[in-house]
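Run log // design_07
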């Protein structure tokens, strides 16, 4: 069974500084954002457009 983006673990960064980690649903609740906004922060295009201190999410891969 394939895991959806909502089930995966992500690390949240603002610029080079680690902010928090968790699933998209957990982070959306904690930081008062919608799930769509959080998913947008995972897109490669968003990462390319990011300047300086932009909030971004990076998927944490399993060590398997």
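design_07 sequence
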């Amino acid at each position: 069974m394939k895991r959806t983006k909502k089930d995966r673990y992500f690390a949240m960064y603002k610029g080079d500084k680690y902010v928090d980690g968790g699933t998209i649903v957990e982070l959306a609740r904690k930081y008062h954002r919608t799930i769509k906004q959080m998913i947008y922060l995972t897109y490669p295009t968003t990462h390319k457009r990011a300047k300086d201190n932009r909030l971004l999410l990076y998927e944490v891969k399993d060590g398997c």
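The beta strands are 10-14, 17-22, 55-59.
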